[in-house]
Design a protein that fits this description.
Length: about 350
Amino acid sequence: MDPLVSVIVPVYNVYPFLQEALDSVIGQTYTRLEILLVDDGSTDGSGEICEAYAGKDPRVRVIHQNNLGISAARNRALDTASGEILAFMDPDDSFDIRFIEELLTSMMREDADVALCKYDYHYTTGHMTDKASGKTQPRIAPGCYTQNEVLSLLVENRMNHSVWNKLYKKKLWDSVRFHEDHVIEDLETTYKVCSSCKKICVLKDVLYHHRKRSGSITSYQSRQILEDELLAYDRTESYVRAHTPSLFSNKQLSVFDRLCVQSLLSSYPRSKQFSEEVSPDYRENLRKQIIEKTEKYDLSGAGLRLRTGYKMICRCPKLYDICYSGYMGIRMAVFKVRGR
C-alpha cells in the first residue's frame, strides 16, 4: 500500500490566503493524505475555513487551540500525525500540484530519509500564479547527498533551514520538536533532523511557492524577533559544538562559527530599525555581547568583509551602522533589478 503522508499546516489569521493554500493540498496528484490543520486561535475566520474544508474532505482534520504560536501548533500536529511521511506547509504558501508525488517518488526510489525541492518567491497579497520573482532556492544541484554532505550544505548555508519545501520520514521526528515561545523555530530543528539523515534527495523542479508579504513574521522586525534569532543561533551552536567531531567535522564547525558571526554582526545595525523599543544602553550591551561571543570564534579563515565588520563594530560602531545600511541598500537594489 502507498504510504500515508501527513501534511501539517499551522493556521493563524491568514483568511485572505488560506483557501489557495488548502486547495493546493487537496488537489495533490498523490491522494493518500492526512491533512492536519491546527487553528492556533485565529480571530479572522480562518478557523471557519478549516472546518468548511473538513466538511468537504474526510482527509482533513482540524485541531483548535488557543494562540500558542507556530511551533506549538506544529508540535500539536506532530503528536497526532498518523502518516509514515511528513510534509509541512505555511498557510499563506502553496504546493505545486505534483509536490508530494514527485518528492515521495524520489524518496522511495533512492531510499532517502528526506527529499526536497526548489521553491520560488511570490511578492503578492493576491492570488499566486505561475509567474514568480524568477529567483529560486535553495542553491543546491539536483541529486542525492550523504549525511556528511548534507551537514556541509547546512553549515555553508546552501540548504535552507525552513521545513516546508521538504518531505520527511516520520521517524526522524521521533525525538525532535520545535522550540515553543519563539518565532525562529526552524534553524535548530532542521539541524537535528538532518543529523539523523543517511541520505537526502534534491529535485530540480520548483514545487513549492513561498509568499513574501509585509506583516508576516519573517518580514516583521522587532526586538523580540532579533533576540529570538540570536537565541536560535546560540542553541544551534551548542548543538553543533556538542556533536563535534562525532557528527560534524572540525572544518564544518569552523564554517558554522563564521555563519554565527555573520548573524551576530547583522543584529547590531538591524536593532536601529526599532529604536523606539530599545535604549542606547540596550544597543551598547548588544554590541558588547556580540564582541564577547565573536571572540570565541576563529576568524582566521573568514573573509575580508566579515573581519572588517568585526573590527568596525569593536572600534567604531557608528561607522559600522552607516556602512551596513549602505551595503544593504545596494544589495536590495540589485535584488530588485534581478527580480527577486
